[in-house]
Amino acid sequence: MQRPDGGSSHAEAPSPRGGPEAGSSAANFEGRDLTGFDFAGANLRGANLAGSKLLFADLTGACLAGADLTGADLDSATLVLADLTGAVLKGANLYGADLTAAVLENATLEGAWLGGADMDQATLKGTRLEGARYDWQTRWPEGFDPERRGPVRAVTLPLG
Q1: How far apart, in whole angstroms, are the C-alpha atoms of residue 12 and residue 133?
Q2: pLDDT at res. 22
Q3: Phi, psi (rounded to 5 degrees) for 146
Q4: Which end of the chain has a smaller Cβ tally under 10 Å, C or N?
Q5: HSE-up of 130 (CA within 13 Å, CB side)?
Q6: Distance of CA 116 to the CA centre of its chain
Q7: Distance, C-alpha 38 to centroid of its chain
Q8: Which DSSP string do the residues of 17-50 spell out, in sequence order?
Q9: How does pLDDT run across 99-122, given as a tens digit for each residue?
Q10: How confident is the model at residue 158 (pLDDT cuts 50, 70, 90)?
């Protein structure tokens, strides 16, 4: 696995690939710095990622169903086609995260920062968004009205 700075990410944390399967005890990456890790297609079902740093991490197509991402920093992470069904992302930072076509059914994003997040084609059925904040750059699925679902639009000004 390569980090964006070109360094190897093997020494910092074990890869979840080949790790716990659904129904067994889940992986525990609580509070770990996983910046730039490649978790594409990984099975992280029920994993504890609370407080972890996943900046620029690639979670494309990963299974994060039921995972705990409370307070996680997912700034600019790629979560395209990720399964976040029932995941807990309370207070998570999803600034600039790409959640295109991600499944967020019954997920909890209460108090999360969604500024600049791209949720085009994401599934938000039953998603809890109370107290979540978003800005003018946040992209929602077509037909989704955030003002009727609980998030609060933050007043931010574009740079430049």
Answers
A1: 32
A2: 35
A3: -60, -30
A4: C
A5: 3
A6: 13
A7: 14
A8: TTSPPTTSPPPB-TT-B-TT-B-TT-B-TT-B-T
A9: 999 999 999 999 999 999 999 999
A10: low
Single-letter amino acid code for the residue at 80: V
Lowest mean pLDDT among 8-12, 30-34, 96-100, 146-150: 8-12
* Residue 102, token pair as written in the block: 């991600």
Q: Give the 3-state secondary structure percentages of the chain, helix then strand then coil, rounded to 5.
A: 0, 20, 80
Letter for the amino acid at 94? L
Between the two ends of the chain, the Cα-to-Cα distance in Å is 35
For 122: left if phi > 0, alpha if psi spans -120 to 50, otherwise beta; the answer is beta
Q: Where are the domains of the chain?
A: 28-142
Q: SS3 of 158, please?
A: coil
The CA-atom distances, in angstroms, between 118 and each of 46, 66, 97 are: 24, 21, 6
What pLDDT, in 10s, does the model give residues 28-72?
999 999 999 999 999 999 999 999 999 999 999 999 999 999 999
